[in-house]
Amino acid sequence: MKELNLPSPPDALRDASGHWSWPFQALIVTPWQTTWPLWKLVYIYGSLVAFLFLLGRPTLRFWRSRSLSPLELVLWVWLAGNTVASCSGGPYWGFASFDRYVIWALPAAIALNADLIAAHPRWHFAMGLASIGITAFAVVHHGLG
Questions:
Q1: Are 94 and 23 a contacting pair, CB within 8 Å?
Q2: Long-range pairs for 127-132 at CB < 8 Å and ≥24 separation?
Q3: 109 in a domain, yes or no?
Q4: Range of 35's domain?
Q5: In-domain check, residue 76
Q6: Residue 92, burial from CB neighbour count under 10 angstroms (0-12, 13-18, 19+)
Q7: Using 50, 70 and 90 to split pLDDT, how confident is the model at 15?
Q8: Which residue did the predictor score with more confidence, 47 or 15?
Q9: DSSP codes of every residue in 72-91
């Protein structure tokens, strides 16, 4: 089995302190300071777009209707808090592990967007297959890390 061969932090990031940065800072800056495989860029930015969409959709719906059940409020706080925290991860790992951090809110994202999932099951099945395909490609070409 191959070893995971991802870039190590450059000196400017290696000595950075703290686990937090401004929202989106690591997601924008890190790929400019290190070289990443295309699959990783696609996976991270695809995850970012997906979670911003899955957060924005119920936010807009709740803002328009001005009504929220207690369960929806808890789920929305979970999804919003985790997404904002994931987008504010610190130097290097805020990008490198973004997908691992944001996935913690997937149950809330699914529950708040259940109507979309029910309306388009084939689309979601295709997205699941694409995610599995990217993961399989990464494991075959870069090993398990």
A1: no
A2: 127/50
A3: yes
A4: 27-142
A5: yes
A6: buried
A7: very low
A8: 47
A9: HHHHHHHHHHHHHHHHTB-T
Highest mean pLDDT among 4-8, 80-84, 141-145: 80-84
Radius of gyration of the chain (CA): 17
Q: Read off the tokens for 77.
A: 């706080």
What are the phi and psi torsion angles at 3 (to 5°)? -80, 150
- By the 8 A CB rule, do 92 and 16 touch? yes
- Predicted TM-score of the model (pTM): 0.76
How far are the Cα atoms of 5, 54, 72 from residue 99, in angstroms, in the given order?
17, 14, 24
Residue type for position 65 = S
Number of domains in the chain: 1
Secondary structure of residue 89 in the 3-state scheme: strand
Tell me the C-alpha distance between 84 and 126, whole Å.
Answer: 27
In a domain, 11, yes or no: no
Residues, the chain: 145
Dihedral sign from CA coordinates of 104, 89, 46, 72: positive
